[in-house]
Amino acid sequence: MSENIYASFHEHVLDVLKKIIPDLPENILKRVELVPTRELAHGDMATNAAMVAAKAAGRKPQEIAGELAAGLCSVPAIKSAEVAGPGFVNITLEASVFLQLIPTILARKEQFGHAETPKNLVVNVEYVSANPTGPMHVGHCRGAVVGDVLANILHKAGYKVTKEYYINDAGTQVNALAWAAYWRYLQAIGLSISDEVFEKDVPGGLQYKGDYLIEVGEALKQKYDQSLAPEGKIAPVDLWFAPVKEMALDYMMARIRQDLSSLGVYHEVFTSEAAVLAGGAVEIAINKLQAKGLLYTGILPPPKGKQLEEWEERPQLLFKATQFGDDVDRALRKADGSNTYFANDIGYHNTKIQQGADIVIDVLGADHGGYVARMRAAVKALSHDRPADKPVDFEAVICQIVRVVRNGQPVKMSKRAGTFVTLHDLIDEVGKDAVRFTMLTRKADAQMDFDLDQVVAHTRDNPVFYVQYAHARCCSILRSAQDVWPDILLVEDASPANLLLLNDEAEMNLIKHIAQWPRLVEAAAATREPHRVAFYLMDLAAFFHGLWNRGKDNTQLRFIQSDDYTASLPRIMLVMATAIVLRSGFAVLGVDPVEEM
Predict the structure, then answer these.
(1) What is the reported pLDDT for 415?
(2) What angle do CA 535, 538, 540 make, to 5 degrees?
(3) Is the pTM above the cut of 0.85?
(4) Which residues does the UniProt record annotate as the domain Arginyl tRNA synthetase N-terminal (predicted)?
């Protein structure tokens, strides 16, 4: 039997269903699910098989469910199967199914839950990709954590994963950064120029006034002395722009990498937008679409909300995005011949296709929701002629805004004014692990408050503390067990009779939740929802703490019976299994488990 017992019994469900209704279409069978029941009183697992098959079979769901339940009862490891509601079947397994997992977990250690067979699919996960115009802030932080943990969970589920950061170093914002850095350079060499005076010469005004660029100004002074302002005043742009821009970008990217490192985020690939454009990636993608007959010159309707008198009709090079699910065709080249930002993004994403990605996932901020349909259309168009007519899947995970709260009041952020809460400050105050775990206590597409007071509280209301405390308690119990029996932690197996001593309801509830870990890994990967791992660990901690508390009232349930090795061994094995799964989950989250608190 697979260590993913849900996968094993899913096969049993399909086998029985196919006997009841032969020749069910494959698309129907793919919709059959086997999931943990919401209430433990309703059994261990529930399936929707009868409801999914009813229409194709031309029969009532409850009728099929009755036959399915009867057939499942003949499977040796199934204790009972009962029809529930409109046609669900609730399944209760023999306790031995769960108990036999304990030796498996002790043998596999943190590899328990890792995919037993690889998916043979390459996934590119691009996340953070913050403009290199300022330090990382908590808004970037959420995307960094979500993307990093999503990549980790995909790897654990058997995908081949690449973690990528796209450096936006070719747009107007990095030009604005260069002007701001030059302003700080002028200050560093002693020229007293107010931002109001300087702004008169700056295209679009001085956008980045934060103190973080003072260091760039000093570095420019050290390298160039006064040669970038040789007459003691603002020099012609051609003299200083390129070296200032280069140094400012290098400085900001070094700082971003340092911030990401402090968060435990390490990308395998950093791709420069400027390099992508210089390498002709946009032209390659446009030519590819042109060869497929997917481009034409046309005039787009005015954007929604525009008054007609404000709209100027201009012929542009358009991509037939509507053929691939978008609601409007998209411009790739403007009337003046320059490429749109979307064209640049198409060029970049085509490089991912060329590098062999089967799935491309972008982790984006809340303001990029409108970007998804057009990029999905482009990726599909660029790859729909792949072997077996299997285009590359483009997916987006949208991260909503994070509001930082202190003493019940929001802490304001403003990247350009330099008054934002930086990622560095956040980690310095509460620690990497608290930041990473807390960022996953809500779904990515839900807004969240990051409460600076709560994440450092030693209470059950702080999930970071609550889950870490469960692991620390496990370690404490295991140390105490070693004090009584020095070799007990070397035991990785016990007789079935010993394991059957784990028959209390609280013990079985904990074991059953541990057994869900391999399925949880698969589900979190399939749904692209890394927060599920944090939620699972919180529930696992609750089951463990509940059992620990039961032992305070009932001495027979204490993990260590110092005068009874036989009774203690299976309980110590259960604690070891709990600690292993907690550590496995922490590894996915990028959180360091603590052994003492």
Answers:
(1) 47
(2) 110
(3) yes
(4) 7-93
